Amino acid sequence: MSKTIKLKKGFDINLAGKPEKKISEISLSETFAVKPTDFPHMSRPKLLVKEGDTVKAGTPILYDKMSEDVRFCAPVSGEIAEIKRGEKRKLLEIKILADKEMVFEKFKSYNSSEISGLSKEDALAHMKAGGVWPNVIQRPYGIVANPEDTPKAIFISAFDTNPLAPDVAYQLGDKEQFFQTGLDMLKKFTDGKIHLNIDAQAEVAQVFAQAEGVELNKFTGAHPAGNVGVQIHHLDPINKGDIAWTVTPYGVAQIGQLFAEGKYDASKLVAVTGSEISAPGYVKTYSGATIGNLAGDLTGNLRFISGNPLTGENCGKNGYLGFYHNQVTVIPEGDYEEFLGWIKPSTTKLSFHKALGLLSFLNKNKEYTVDTNTHGEERPFVVSGAFEKVLPMDILPTYLFKAIIAEDYDEMEALGIFELVEEDVALLEFIDPSKNDLQEILREGIELIKNS
Amino acid sequence: MKALQNLFDSVKPNFEKGGKWEKFYTLYEGHRTIAFAPDILTKNKGTQIKDAVDLKRVMITVVIAMIPALLFGMWNVGHQHFISVGEEATLFNKILIGSIAVVPVLIVSYAVGLLTEFTFCVIRNHPISEGYLVTGMLIALVMPPTIPLWQVAMATIFAVVIGKEAFGGTGMNILNVALTARAFLYFAYPGQISGDSVWVYLGGKETVDAFSGATVLSYGPTSIANGNNMMAEIGGHWYDGMFSFMNMFIGAIPGSIGETSVLMCLIGAAILIGTGVGSWKIILSVFGGAYFMGVVFNLVGGNPYMDFPAHYHLVAGGLAFGAVFMATDPVSASQTEVGKWIYGFLIGLLTVLIRVVNPAYPEGIMLAILFMNVFAPLIDYYVVDANKKRRLKRATV
Questions:
Q1: Over the stretch B167-217, which tens digit does the pLDDT of each residue have?
Q2: Angstroms from B120 CA to nearest CA on chain A
Q3: CB nearest to A342's CB, from B54, B274, B395
Q4: In terms of domains, do A36 and A174 share one?
Q5: B3 interface with A at CB cutoff 8 Å
Q6: Cα dist. B5→A80, A377, B12, B32 in Å?
C-alpha cells in the first residue's frame, strides 16, 4: 500500500541562489578526480592504475580490500595525472587528465527481454564490475552496501528538501529513460518492496509517477522530509539487525544505463547554487569535476562547497566534486568579527529560533544570504527541546548524542543510532545554539557501533 | 570599532602561549567575544552554515525578560517603605529608595559571581560561559530587600562553586544555581531571609502603628492557630486592600525584591514564550499543579489555610516568579517534552502542599523547584525508557 505521510516538524532554510531550470554551456574541466574519502568506511583502498596510465571512462581504477570485486571506475577517459596522498600515505585523490573526446569502456549490454530474464547473480556481477555498485548505500551506517546482503527493502527519495536543493527529476536529464531499467535491476535484490518517495506538495515528474514495480509514497512537510532516513523511519523503520538499501534516482538511472547501453556513464547535471553565483542553474559535466570550473570565474573571499550547505564539504575552488554530490554551492566566508553581534537585532540573519532580536521568522519568504560564520562559540548542551522541533522522527537526539560522547554502546543502540546518518542530523547541527559538530559526533558513534 | 579591535589585538600576544598572562587567555577571549561576535568559521566537513542564534543571545533574552520584574521590584521596595513609615511619596522617591536597597544587592551578586566564575575559568582553563548573566540577576531578585550584602556575597560564592562549578560548569549543574544561593541563606541564616520583618526596607525609620511586614503566606499558620477564616484575617490587614486579589496580582505587597508582581512575571513569561526561550509547558503546568492542589485542599477543607481559595495561591508568594524564571531553567529542568509537563505540575503541586501542610516553611516554591530539580533526571529516565521500549517493540512485531 502506498502511503501519504504528513510531517509537521522541520524547517526550510530559505537561501538566496536557488538553481533555475536551465543548462549553461561550460567547457569541461581539464582534470577530474576520484576521491576514496567520499566513501565512508573505505578503510583499505587499493589502486589498479598508476600515474601515466591511460584509462577509458569506466576503467576500474580502485577497489576496497574489504570488498574486492566492487570496482570504482574512472568517470572520464584520459591519463592518470597524479595520485595524491596525505598523511601516512592515505589515498586522497586520483586525478585524471581528461581527453577532449570521451572514450567509454565497453561492458555487455542487454535488451529489454534479456534484462527481465537476468539472474540476480549475473546482475550483481555486472554492477560490481561496471562501477555503479557504490550508488547502493546501506542503512544502518550509511556505507556502500555489502553485495552479499539481502535488504528488507530499498528506498529511493525522489525529492530534495535541503537548502538550495536541485530538482531531482530535472537532474536526471537524458538518463531519465534508464530509470525504469534501474528499478527492474534493483528489484532482483530484495524480497521486500522498493519505496519511491515523492513530494506531495509539488508536481510529480512523469518518470516517477509512471515508475512500475514500486510503492509510490507521498510526503509533505519542511526539510528534512526529503531525507531518505526520515522516510524510512515512517515507512519501515530499521531495527537492530535489519538492513535496508537506499539509492538516489541518479544512481538508479546510472545502473539502468549500464545494463541498457553497456557503459559506465558518469555524466551528470550539476546544480550550481548559492548567493555568490550570478545565474544559478545547471551545468553538464562528469563526476569528479573541478569545483572552480563548474562555479565559473569568481573572486573574493568565498567558500566553494561540493554538495549543499548542510551536508556538503568545503573543497576549495580547486577541489573536486564528490562522488555523491550533484550540487556546487558558493557562499561568502564569514571570517569577520561583528561588534556586539550576539545582541544586535537583525532582519538579515537567518535563524530557526526567535530569540531576542532575531527577526527572520517574521519574513519566511525572504531568501537569505548566509555566510560561513558560526555566530558563536561551542558550548555544552543547554537549550532543550529545540532539536525535537526539527527532527520528524521518534528519536531523542540530545540523549543519543550524550550516549555517543560517553561511548555507551547499549544506549546508542537503544536510542536509535541505526536509523540515522549524518544528513539526518545536519539540520540539528545548523540550529544548535551550542554549536556542536553533531554530524561528526554521529559519525564517531556509527564507527564505534559498527566496529564493536 | 576598529580602535577597540586594535586594542584587543595589541594585548593579545600577552595572553597567547608564551605570553606573560598566558594563564588568563580565557578572560581575554571572554571579553573579546562579548565586544565582538567571534570570527569562527564552520569546519570543512559538517554544516557549512550555522543559525544566527548562540547561547549568549539566549541568555540575554532571559535577562531582558526579567527587567520588568526588576524595575517593578525597585518601585515596590520604595512603595512598601513609604507606606510602612506612613509618608506620602512621589514615584521618583519610591524608585530612588528602592534603588538604594536593590542596586547594591544586584552589584554584589554580579561582581562576586563573575569573579568566582572567572577564577574557575582560569584555574580549569575553560571558556567563560554566559550562564551567569542570568544567575546574577536571579539571585538579586529572590533576596529580601533587607538582606545584608555579605550574605549575598557568601550565598553567591556557595552557589557558583558548589552548585555549578563542582559539577563541571554551565550546562552540567543539577540544581538551579540561583535557588541554591537562596536555599543556602535560608538554612544558614534564616533570620535574615524569613520571618515577618525582612520583607520591608525601613532604612532605620519608625513604622506606623499596627505595622506588620508579614507576607500573605504567613497569615496561613496564624489563622490556623487562631481558628479564624484566613480571608477575614488578610482582609483585616493594617493597610487597606493590601492582600486583595488584584493588589497581589499587581504585586504591591511585601516580599523578595523581584517576586511580588505576578503581572511582571507574566510579561516576562510572554517574552520567554514568544521568543521560544522558556518552555510554556513548564510555566503552564506549574500554575496548573498549584491550582489543582489548591482546589483539592478546598474540597477536603479541615482548617482555615486549606480553605484559602485556590486562585489566591497563584498570586501569593513567589509561585509566578519561580514558574516563569526558575522552573524553566533548561539545565536543571526536565529535558524531555513529556517530562516537562510532569516536572512543572509536580512543582506547582508541591509548592502548595509545602505552604499549607508545613507551617515551618511559609513559602514552598523554592524547595519544590529544588526537589524537582533532583527528580528531573528520574522523570526523564522514564520518558527516555518509554522511547527505547517503543523502538524495541517495533522490532519484535
A1: 988 888 999 999 999 999 999 998 888 888 889 998 888 888 888 888 888
A2: 16
A3: B54
A4: no
A5: no
A6: 49, 18, 10, 8
A254 and A274 both lie in a single domain: yes
Shared domain for A94 and A129, answered yes or no, is no
Residue ranges making up the domain that contains A97: 26-106
**Cβ(A186)–Cβ(A255) under 8 Å?**
yes
Closest CA to A434 of A401, A404, A412: A401
Q: In sequence order, what are the beta bridge partners of A270?
A: A283
Q: What is the pTM of this model?
A: 0.93
pLDDT tens track for A248-278? 999 999 999 999 999 999 999 999 999 999 9
CA distance A311 to chain B (A): 6
Do B169 and A380 count as a contact with CB atoms less than 8 A apart? yes
Cell of B6: 586594535
Q: Which residues contact B330 (CB under 8 A, 6 or more apart)?
A: A382, A383, A384, A385, B279
| Subunit contact B64:A358, Cβ cutoff 8 A | no
Domains, chain B, ordered by start: 59-204+218-383 (1.10.3430)
Check CB contact under 8 Å for A374 and B41.
yes
Query: Hey, are the CB atoms on A375 and B51 less than 8 Å from each other?
Result: yes
| B279 contact A CB<8A | yes
Q: A223-232, B230-239, B268-277, B372-381 — which is least confidently predicted? A: B230-239
Q: What is the pLDDT of residues A388-429, one digit of tens each?
A: 999 999 999 999 999 999 999 999 999 999 999 999 999 999
B372 in A contact zone (CB under 8 Å): no
Quote the CA–CA distance of A392 and A385 in Å, as a whole number. Answer: 13
Closest-CA residue to B140 (of B119, B163, B171, B111)? B111
Separation in Å, CA B219 to CA A108, B200, B262, B354: 94, 16, 19, 15
The answer to whether ipTM exceeds 0.85 is: yes
Residue at B73: amino acid letter: G
Q: Decide: B327 and B286 in contact? Cβ < 8 Å.
A: yes
Task: With CB atoms and an 8 Å threshold, state whether A430 touches B49.
Answer: yes
At A412, list the grid cell.
Answer: 546508542
Which of A353, A427, A439 has the highest number of chain B CBs within 10 A, making it the mutation to test binding with B?
Answer: A353
